[in-house]
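User: Can you recover a sequence for this backbone? Please restate the input before giving your answer.

Assistant: Of course. Working from this structure:
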């Protein structure tokens, strides 16, 4: 009997995800009260992030009904990157600069290749806002070029020396100024485009959608902290390098919201919003989150943007691939498969490179 069909499966899945939201508070309660061990905390926290990512994607989709795809993608990037900022600052406070740098570049690369690739694989073929996509990719390309200024000095000698941290400050300021200018223009354009549309608004109110985004992001931040706290023991047990853990595992955890949100809306036919989520998130990490971490780190321990050659090489290649996809202005599963395969290759390179 097939009367239920896709709609029936979607309803069941929705009920499971709604019930799964209880995993977040449960994970935090066990972490604070029972201390079940690194392995159990890792599994629980990873499972808890799945329904939280779904909720962020759901709320973003409803918010986009009121704001348009461009601003909806911006909202998802903003809320989705909050856990990464918290994780990065915690790592700075614990004196783990390699973990900070690896998780941040891994986040940008993950959005450009894995999140965008998965979204294209899940979406039907159709056009998206080419201009907005190229703008986001261009911001990542500019940031990669500026990262070379402090990074080259870190390829010889102590990569964490104070002079490189000082050299990273003007780079951070320039990137933040670029972010403010580009974001202001982009949001103004998206607002004008959305005003020209005459779509009927359905679903949640904007206030409800934003409240859900805020609550889900807050819980995601705490759950991500539990997950990251259990990663070091996990990595030691399985013989992984700290760099690989930061650039791949921590980055994947921090991007859980974008992964789930982008793929979810892509499967629902909103491929334009899915592309906006992945690319605007990558751009926001590159030109806002990374410089923000640099500036805030001076309150604890100054962070130098002395990225490794393998990081910058992977970032440059990822940017080039994403630019080629953006220039086409059209989604396609073949492009998605190429991006996903490229991410696997980058992860393998990070694994082989080991620690600095």
């Amino acid at each position: 009997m097939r009367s239920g069909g896709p709609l029936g499966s979607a309803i069941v899945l929705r009920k499971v995800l709604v019930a799964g939201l209880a995993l977040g508070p449960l994970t935090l309660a066990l972490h604070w009260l029972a201390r079940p061990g690194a392995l159990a905390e890792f599994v629980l926290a990873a499972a808890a992030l799945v329904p939280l990512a779904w909720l962020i994607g759901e709320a973003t989709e409803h918010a986009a009904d009121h704001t348009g795809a461009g601003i909806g993608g911006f909202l998802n990037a903003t809320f989705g990157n909050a856990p990464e900022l918290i994780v990065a600052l915690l790592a700075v406070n614990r004196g783990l600069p390699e973990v900070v740098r690896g998780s941040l570049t891994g986040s940008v690369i993950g959005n450009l290749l894995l999140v965008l690739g998965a979204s294209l694989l899940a979406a039907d073929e159709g056009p998206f806002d080419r201009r907005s996509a190229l703008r986001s990719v261009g911001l990542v390309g500019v940031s990669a070029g500026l990262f070379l200024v402090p990074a080259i000095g870190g390829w010889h000698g102590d990569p964490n020396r104070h002079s490189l941290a000082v050299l990273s400050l003007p780079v951070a300021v320039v990137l933040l100024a670029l972010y403010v200018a580009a974001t202001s223009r982009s949001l103004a354009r998206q607002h004008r485009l959305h005003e020209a549309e005459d779509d009927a608004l359905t679903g949640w109110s904007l206030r409800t959608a934003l409240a859900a985004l805020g609550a889900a992001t807050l819980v995601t931040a705490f759950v991500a902290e539990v997950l990251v706290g259990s990663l070091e023991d996990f990595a030691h047990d399985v013989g992984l390098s700290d760099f690989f853990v930061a650039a791949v595992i921590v980055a994947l955890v921090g991007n859980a919201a974008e992964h789930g949100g982008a793929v979810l809306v892509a499967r629902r036919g909103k491929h334009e919003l899915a592309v906006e989520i992945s690319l605007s998130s990558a751009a926001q990490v590159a030109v806002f989150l990374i410089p923000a971490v640099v500036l805030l780190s001076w309150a604890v321990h100054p962070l130098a943007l002395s990225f490794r050659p393998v990081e910058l090489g992977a970032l440059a290649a990822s940017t080039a691939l994403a630019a080629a996809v953006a220039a086409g202005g059209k989604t396609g599963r073949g492009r998605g498969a190429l991006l996903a395969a490229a991410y696997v290759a980058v992860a393998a390179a990070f694994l082989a490179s080991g620690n600095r």
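That completes the design. Residues 42 and 227 are 5 Å apart (CA to CA).
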